[in-house]
Amino acid sequence: MFLRATVKFVVQDAIKNEARMGSSLLRLHFHDCVVNTIVKSAVQDEINKEARMGASLLRLHFHDCFVNGCDASVLLDDTASFIGEKGAAANLNSARGFEVIDQIKAELEKQCPGKVYCADILTLAARDSVFILGGPHWRVELGRKDARTASLDDANKDIPLSNWTLGQRAARFNALGLSTNELVALAGAHTMRQTKNSTSVKFDKNYYTNEAEQSEDRDNTQACPVMLINGKATKSIVNRYGDNPNAFSADFAAAMIKMSEIKPLTGRDGEIRQNCRRVNN
């Protein structure tokens, strides 16, 4: 038992160290073109057409980073050599925004051909979606290369599902170097969802205030919002964010930066895809 626990912690430490080494190679001004301006303008246009697209782009970034790091593998279509992640349980019939990334990539190929990674586009699009909908802004370091493969099995195994317990979620976050506090902060991204009784979409603290108010009326502890307010390690964090929107915004931004730097492909690994849906020939 002791040996098994020791091996577990050694593996987790190795994963965290690998993530730190990769993130140290990212740079704020990696590209010598106006990539930030082009991405933000495109995201703004799409959100003006459909506000909930912001949440979709953010979710796409989450699901990308949780499967073998932030490498744009979620964008790849199936090929003869691998089955991609779009058909995973957490993505099938729900993941969207692929066409938006395609449009941004096409424009960047006109302005800066062969220079901008799809993984960086996805990271910037998520950040800009949050900011445009009223959330915090944070600096994004760039240089995440694009993966040459994807894995349906890994996506099914590694992306949290709605029926996961709080313990399962915390374990998955911890394996990626993310704390329980960061789990709660990142869960606040659900505030951007368009509710059934509202036509507006915005980023605010209501996710936490609503969960605190509804927790006594709902007994489905498998639902992520309810499990957070009922969790011993998370209840105080939910209440703090509900009372202090500035603390939530600051922690959310910090957690997004950390998540976006999970195991990026740098150096000789990966490539700059010409088309985000397929690897280069």
Automatic annotation (TrEMBL):
Active site: 63 (proton acceptor)
Keyword Calcium in record: yes
Catalytic activity, EC: 1.11.1.7
Function: Removal of H(2)O(2), oxidation of toxic reductants, biosynthesis and degradation of lignin, suberization, auxin catabolism, response to environmental stresses such as wounding, pathogen attack and oxidative stress.
Binding site for heme b: 190
Binding site for substrate: 160
The name this protein goes by in its record: Peroxidase
GO MF entries: heme binding; lactoperoxidase activity; metal ion binding
Gene Ontology CC entries for this record: extracellular region
InterPro entries: Haem_peroxidase (IPR002016), Haem_peroxidase_sf (IPR010255), Peroxidase_pln (IPR000823), Peroxidases_AS (IPR019794), Peroxidases_heam-ligand_BS (IPR019793), Secretory_peroxidase (IPR033905)
Cofactor(s) in the UniProt record: Ca(2+); heme b
Subcellular location: Secreted
Cofactor descriptive note: Binds 2 calcium ions per subunit. Binds 1 heme b (iron(II)-protoporphyrin IX) group per subunit.
Pfam families reported in the protein's UniProt record: peroxidase (PF00141)
Family to which this protein belongs: Belongs to the peroxidase family. Ascorbate peroxidase subfamily.
Site feature Transition state stabilizer, where: 59
Reactions catalysed, as given in the entry: 2 a phenolic donor + H2O2 = 2 a phenolic radical donor + 2 H2O
